[in-house]
Each structure stands twice: as C-alpha cells, then as structure tokens.
Amino acid sequence: MSQVKVGIIMGSQSDWPTMKLAADILDELGVAYEARIVSAHRTPDRLWDYGKTAVDRGLEVIIAGAGGAAHLPGMMASKTRVPVVGVPVQTKALSGVDSLYSIVQMPKGFPVATMAIGAAGAANAGLMAAGILANSDAELAARLDKWRDDLSASIPEVPSDD
Ligand code: RP5
C-alpha cells in the first residue's frame, strides 16, 4: 500500500471494536492507515510524541477515539495542525454522552471535527478522512463517489414487512 496518511488513535484496547469500524471503511476504500493506542491519561508522553511528529511523518488526518473523560482528540488537536476527527466511544456508565461532551466543546483555535457517538461515528470518521484525502487524490475520489452511490442504490424505496 501507499504512504500512510491516516492515523487512527484510541485511548484503550477496549476502544478498538469501535475504532475498527473506521479502519474497515478505509480498507474498503483502499486508504492506508496506522492504528495505535495513545492514551491522554495513561501514556501522555506517547501522545506528545505522536502529535509532535505527525506532520513530518506525512499524516494528513488523525482519527482519535476515546470514551469517558475523552481528552485524547482535543489534546492531539492542541499538539498538531493535522486535522483531528474525534470519535466519542460509547460508554457503559453514561452511554457516550460523557465522551461526546468531552470532545465536542473545544475552545476557539483548536478544532476537533466531532462525529456521532459510537459505531456510526467511527464509520463516518473513516469516510471523513477519505473525503479529505480525496480532495487531492482523483482515484480515491472516484472510489468514494462509487461507495456513496452504492449505498444510495442499496436503500429500498418501499418498506418491507420482513
Ligand atoms: C478511555 O477510557 C478510553 O478511551 C476508553 O474508552 C475508556 C476506558 O478504558 P479501559 O478502562 O477500558 O482501558 O481512556
């Protein structure tokens, strides 16, 4: 595969079943990515190093997912100008509203593009990353257009009783 331009980072191994849905979309669209566990609280030095080297390593989008006190996306946005797409992971205690609120209310100057809570948000993060890269990659743009057309075509016009 080509140069890795998308980093998928998450606060814990327990986030991977959700974040894998972003990876699955990127696989479908032929977009190279790396996946890493980078915790704002448990591995802050790893977070700092990841953010500090992101531009030089050629990353163009970072998808960051975390749950609960979900500081990873915002802290990553404060450390690199690479666009950060935030995924609020669904939690048991508060259903992911805690994650959403932790990610979405960034102060002016350090944006995080915050997705929906959970599975849909992770898949959409993959699509968002692909859309950003497609602006400068005509072949990826064609694959993404087809992916979207196929999804539209799969939606029946008439509801079924089954
Ligand atoms: C966050 O705490 C992680 O992003 C995860 O969603 C949550 C729980 O982590 P574990 O206790 O399952 O490792 O930092």
From TrEMBL:
Question: Which Pfam family, just one, is annotated for this protein?
Answer: AIRC
The entry's keywords: Isomerase, Purine biosynthesis
Annotated binding of substrate, by residue: S12, D15, R42
Tell me what gene encodes this.
purE
According to its UniProt entry, the function of this protein is described as: Catalyzes the conversion of N5-carboxyaminoimidazole ribonucleotide (N5-CAIR) to 4-carboxy-5-aminoimidazole ribonucleotide (CAIR).
PurE domain ranges (all copies): 4-155
Gene Ontology MF terms in the entry: 5-(carboxyamino)imidazole ribonucleotide mutase activity
- Where on the tree of life does the source sit, at the highest rank? Bacteria
This protein's pathway reads: Purine metabolism; IMP biosynthesis via de novo pathway; 5-amino-1-(5-phospho-D-ribosyl)imidazole-4-carboxylate from 5-amino-1-(5-phospho-D-ribosyl)imidazole (N5-CAIR route): step 2/2
User: What EC number is given for this enzyme?
Assistant: 5.4.99.18
Q: What is this protein called?
A: N5-carboxyaminoimidazole ribonucleotide mutase
Q: Signal peptide span per the entry?
A: none
As for family, the record states: Belongs to the AIR carboxylase family. Class I subfamily.
